Amino acid sequence: MAVHGIDLGTTYSCIASVDDVSRPTVHRNAEDADTTPSVVFFETPENVVVGQTAKDSAVLEPDLVVSRVKRDMGLDVTRTMHGRPYTPEEISAFVLRKLAADAEMATGSRVEDVVVTVPAYFGAAERDATRKAGQIAGLNVIDIISEPIAAAITYGVLNPGEDCRILVYDLGGGTFDTTVITLTGGDIEVVCTDGDHELGGADWDDRLVELLAERFRLEHPDVTDPLDDKQTEQQLRRDAEELKKSLTSRTRHTVRVMHDGRVAKAEVSREDFERLTRDLLDRTVEITRRTLATARSKGVESFDHLVLVGGSSKMPSVAEALAKELGVQPRLQDPDLAVAKGAALYAFEETYRRLLAGGAREQAEEMAARAGLSSGERQRIAGRTIKTVASRAFGIKAVSVNTRREYVAHLVQANDPLPADVTEGFATLDDYQTRVAIEVMEQAGAEASEAVEDNNRIAEGDLAIPPGKPAGFPIEVTFTLDTSGLLHVTAREHETGQQLDLNVQIGGMTEEDVAESRASLSHLTVS
Amino acid sequence: MLPEHDLTSDLAATLARLTEEVGREHERAAHREQIIDRLHAENQELRHGLLQEALTPVRNGLYRLHDTVTREAARLEPGHSRALLEAIAEEVAEVLARTGADRIEVAEGDVYDPALHRPAGTAEGPPNRVVSVVSEGFRAGERVLRKAGVVIGKEEIY
């Protein structure tokens, strides 16, 4: 039984597992590519297509094609296809099913236990939604981990016994994230994270397309605009991508822009390209600086490793700018696949640890032996833990006794280590209250705030109060937040033992919904 | 019986030797790891068809050349220049065939097949059928290397 790691990305996804020499290996999809577009096409009510073909189909049936569903994770939104509403969890489940099916075809072994990665800024609701997507896909999600942590695992900079601080710079196709991680006494912790979710490698391509078109216009002002012709535009996009790749290894490259019976020779040097996109790179450097300032305010004064992730970080100007700005030589290896590989390594290690902890030593050792691990490596893995922190503050809505002002009392603060188990006492406000409304709130903005409008309500329920109680009748609220960021809230009064249990479900999918959709969607074919 | 100081110095010497040996073993193990890393990377490349991968950029360049020449030929009135450009496109297709990439036969009126066709747009015409071919597709045996770019018919265009 192999365990798998899945990088469930906004635009592309990827699946990997640990092979027989304990190296993480990415499994190619049925189309022979390492990564699969996270695009879903609802071809018929019974058949769903995922990947490149789904992406291509957007031209024909734009209303039946869904892309970038990751942005909706944790939100209560559905998209109706062929008369059936689909939640973001269900749509993501199709992507996961395609990845699993293709990996099964490539390796011949079943995909069951998986670790799925999410951005470090994902809160409880988004993580929960991601876990449920896995369950709907028929997978056993053993854990959800942050993408930068997965990348740092791949880079081999998280070694127990070597405390360190890591800055992860992740420039993908359409998003940019920076994260500071620390490793202290074997515990891995996300210190802070920042980014721009509208900035990515596609912006660099756009600039090149515009440059090529402009060179053509200058030379041939008397013919039609190359960007007005769909075919020429598509060709220019492909040329821009090739040009970008070419300029990572060469210092200049010539593209012949052909359109309307004319040709313009556009020679582009690496300096031209860098000048053209300087402001984009500067934005990433500025955000990186801001992240480091936040880390400093949390006591992390500097860092030991700078790790580059995301295909777009291959541009030489990225490493140069960062080295100049930060005075540290960045590490760059396989940045497109680093997250999936790290997830695979983590999935493997976590399974080994859980087998050991569960007393199944024989099974654990057999698994380690199959991956060719030495006893030293086994010990190292057994001792490693990931300590995650709460990404946001959580609390309940309360009313102050004197002013009757509504505010949010946070029980768990952002960056509190997980798992967290916090109990606080509250009391009824009025005489003879028969119930207390428990409204669970999650910090909405970047900073925690008591103001109700700066928080989102993520769950609610009523706790019954015994009759005839005067104001000030005590109730107790407990927040339990596990390492995946899943929240369980209990409110109780001790006199009759009445208790209210709440599980956070922003997306509105209960465990029953998940089971039901798993059963109903299993009849659909995914190709 | 040996004097005590000899015993201590013997032990110290043995320990030093063992430490050195362990150190050497460590180095060798680290070296082996490096070799495994390298072999692993090579193995991955081989599995993914090193030769095929090396051909990819060459083929991409030839596809582009084929597309461009075909498009330019289509713009011209029938005549010598057009015939010449068409001949160049044919030559390019032949070079591609020699790398193992054969043309996918696509004709107007064919039923749209997402496995072979990449829709480039829609136009008025018989629904779900190829109205025109904008770029040729290529395959190596059963494996589709590049889908044919096609315009697909839709009953009504608003």
Please give the structural blueprint.
The complex is a heterodimer of chains A (527) and B (158).
Chain A lengths: L3 E5 L3 E7 L5 E3 L9 E2 L1 E3 L5 E4 L1 H6 L7 E3 L11 E3 L2 E3 L1 H20 L5 E6 L5 H13 L3 E7 H8 L9 E8 L4 E9 L2 E10 L4 H19 L10 H20 L2 E8 L2 E8 H28 L7 E5 L6 H11 L11 H20 L3 H10 L4 H8 L2 E2 L7 E6 L6 E7 L7 E8 L7 E9 L11 E10 L9 E8 L5 E6 L6 E5 L7 H11 L3 E2 L1
Parallel strand pairs in A: 1-10, 6-27, 10-11, 12-17, 14-18
Antiparallel strand pairs in A: 1-2, 2-3, 2-4, 5-6, 5-7, 8-9, 12-13, 13-14, 15-16, 19-20, 19-22, 21-24, 22-23, 24-25, 25-26
Helix pairs in contact in A: 2-3, 3-12, 4-9, 5-6, 5-7, 7-8, 9-10
Chain B lengths: L3 H44 L2 H26 L4 H19 L3 E3 L12 E8 L5 E6 L1 E4 L2 E4 L1 E7 L4
Structural class of chain A: alpha+beta
Major beta-sheet overview of chain B = 3 strands, antiparallel
Distance between the termini of chain B: 108 Å
What percentage of amino acids of chain A are in beta strands? 25-35%
Mean pLDDT of chain A: 89
Walk across the major sheet of chain B and give the strand order.
1-4-5
- Parts with pLDDT < 50 across at least 5 consecutive residues of chain B: none
User: What's the name of the CATH homologous superfamily of one domain in chain B?
Assistant: Head domain of nucleotide exchange factor GrpE
Kindly estimate the percentage of residues of chain B that lie in beta strands according to DSSP.
15-25%
Give the averaged pLDDT of chain B, no decimals: 87
The CATH class of one domain in chain B is identified as Mainly Beta
Explain the overall architecture.
The complex is a heterodimer of chains A (527) and B (158). Chain A has 527 residues and is an alpha+beta fold. Chain A has twelve helices and 27 strands. Chain A folds into three domains: 208 residues, ATPase, nucleotide binding domain (Nucleotidyltransferase, domain 5, 2-Layer Sandwich), CATH 3.30.420.40; 74 residues, Actin, Chain A, domain 4; 111 residues, Substrate Binding Domain Of DNAk, Chain A, domain 1 (Sandwich), CATH 2.60.34. In chain A, strands 1, 2, 3, 4, 10 and 11 form a six-stranded mixed beta sheet that branches. In chain A, strands 17-12-13-14-18 form a five-stranded mixed beta sheet. In chain A, strand 24 and strand 25 form a beta hairpin. Chain A is globular. By secondary structure, chain B is α+β, with helices and mostly antiparallel strands. Chain B has a domain of 58 residues: Head domain of nucleotide exchange factor GrpE (Nucleotide Exchange Factor Grpe, Chain A, domain 2, Roll), CATH 2.30.22. Chain B has three helices and six strands. A three-stranded antiparallel beta sheet of chain B has the order 1-4-5. Chain B has a three-stranded mixed beta sheet with strand order 2-6-3. In chain B, helix 2 packs antiparallel against helix 3. Chain B is rod-shaped and about 110 Å long. The model of chain B has no long low-confidence stretch (mean pLDDT 87).
